[in-house]
Amino acid sequence: MNEATGSFEANEIDLLVKLLAYNLYERFKRECCEPVHRGYTIARFRLEFFHCAGTLVKHSRRITLKLAKNFAHHHTWNPMTSQVLLSRMSDPNIYMEKLMSILMG
């Protein structure tokens, strides 16, 4: 979505947020996905993994996503989510630092 404005700073922040999202997605693919899924574009990944029936259940102050039993990629999704929980993003992200400096200063 293009949210161009007349403000250079607002456009820069918009670009940096999109760049951050793209870089996080690429890192997620590299660290958490099987090799066969690493070549997926964002659109294909969304189509394959996020277009499925599911229900959010809130119980005991915990929210759980219950996927449909016939979800085609269930066997792939579970290891990816486990890997996400185990992975740590330890190095600082220069784009986030730049974004924060713009927002704060």
Automatic annotation (TrEMBL):
Residues 6-82 form the Transposase DDE domain. It comes from the Bacteria. InterPro entries: Tnp_DDE_dom. This is Transposase DDE domain-containing protein.
